[in-house]
Backbone:
């Protein structure tokens, strides 16, 4: 097995085809080594995604994919299609979460 160590300011992992990334808060997720490296800029700061795939958006806000699809179907959350994928813009996800806080 050809593995290499990938280091960044918030994570350390060994990689083959994919890595388990553990950040400083102890949260872990799987991603490719290229994604692990690309998710941090040269200065070490994490990059902000402009849009999330469905599973990423669900993880980001702590709900299931089915619930996320229901929110999209009900018109409570906007989704776009780009390059054959359904994406949720970061600003739309943040706006939905703000509206939930205001309704509470």
Residues:
């Amino acid at each position: 097995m050809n593995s290499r160590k990938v280091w960044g300011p918030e994570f350390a992992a060994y990689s083959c085809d994919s890595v388990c990334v553990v950040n400083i808060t102890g949260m872990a997720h799987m991603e490719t080594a290229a994604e692990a490296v690309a998710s941090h800029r040269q200065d070490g700061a994490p990059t902000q995604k402009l849009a999330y795939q469905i599973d990423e958006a669900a993880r980001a806000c702590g709900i299931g994919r089915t619930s996320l699809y229901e929110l999209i179907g009900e018109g409570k959350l906007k989704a776009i299609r780009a390059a054959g994928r359904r994406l949720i813009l970061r600003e739309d996800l943040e706006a939905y979460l703000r509206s939930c806080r205001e309704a509470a």
Observations:
- Confidence is low (pLDDT under 50) at residues 1-26.
- The first strand starts at residue 4 and ends at 7.
- Strands lie at 4-7, 12-15, 18-22, 28-32, 51-53, 80-82, 85-89.
- The radius of gyration is 16 Å.
